[in-house]
Sequence to fold (465 residues):
Amino acid sequence: MEKKVSLTIFVFLFSLFAFAQIDSLISPASSLAPAEDRPLKFSLNKDGSRYFQVTFLNQSWVRFNESNPGTTVFGDVEKNTFDIGLRRTRIQMYGQITDRAFVYFQFGMNNFNRTYQMDNNRKIQSFFHDALGEYRITKGNELKLGGGLTIANGLSRFSNPSVGTIMTLDLPVFAQATVDQTDLFSRKLSVYARGQLGKLDYRLVLTDPFSVNSAGTSIATNAAGNIQPITKRAPDSKDATFANIGHTYQYQGYFSYNFWEKEPHLTPYMTGTYLGKRKVLNLAAGAIYQSKAMWRLNSDSATTYDDMFLWSVEGYLDSYINKDKNDAISVYLGYFNYNFGKNYLRYNGIMNPANGLVNSANAPSGSFGNAVPMMGTGQVIYAQLGYLLPHESGKPGIMPFASYTRSDFDKLKDPANIYDIGVNLLMNGHKSKLSFDYQNRPAYNSDYTVGQRKSCFILQYQIFI
Fold:
């Protein structure tokens, strides 16, 4: 019965994607790609060099997920789930206010589905993601100084992601390593210097991290389905976790060498794929360091503080192949070395369709729904590959993609291997995009060995104005 339900949902999603593809291919090009896309941009002077611009982004998901063992949804055990949600809904507002002063705001919400709640209220959701001011010191982009609530991070290009230009259906969220623990959905209160010196793109960041005490109310569901709040407290195990007493600053850096074209430098965000509009080849390295960020009990049951040190090296290629055919390739390979302290491990499920785990489940805490061991002390290798098929200019494009994540965290006895394969239907570039993704992930036993593998099917429609 379960297999029949899974097959039915999969056929529904695949048929919907196929219908949209066929419909868009037979539609006239003029209805899909206007001759001129005019942004919502307001000139502040005669030549338009000073301006203010507004954009809108919405990513809607329809998803079928095979649940991890012991999963409950509002108290009921569910082996499979089908849900509809908004992965991201955002408004960007930014502009060049003077010749050298730049301002950027982003407002919106994330992961809005049936299980979302904050203090038992689904209405408390939208918030400012970014609010920063930046001043260009030099004539060009050699040095910019900025500050505020910002995505400007070290570590990796996927720690500073432009979510409207993602090549895969979603981000490798593990690269936003402290997400919603000591930051605000990967944004932090920071001051920074960034710029481009020849072919070197750099950013140096000083961050005043939030306390983990303000991360929001965590919930756990017992076998009877009662939702119980978990209060922040001193560590009660020998595994490290974020310290909720004391405060230290965070230091970040990121350096990228551009062998071919320089990447745009308007905002701190970094593009997922340019869809053949640029020829980019980068090698990069980044790091984040914070002293006494973590704590645990040592062998004498005394509290011990650990430093947090995260670093990565990565390569990124995104380029057209034949301009006349409008085809392109995008490749990324990254190595991440995470030290959160002894045996740190965090489960996370993207827009989790479930909200509990039965007490009798032979599974790790927090592993309900689609959750995977996403962040931890250890090493991660991540790779993605995409190819934009040849197509006529102004017509829809098709871009198959695949990604692979291997996480070797100290707490795990078996590594976490996650596979994604999918395809984008680019009806008007990233502005109107339909994406389908199949994911296969591990489900762990309570001793952190892999007991099963689970699948997930996602259909996303993105509109970006």
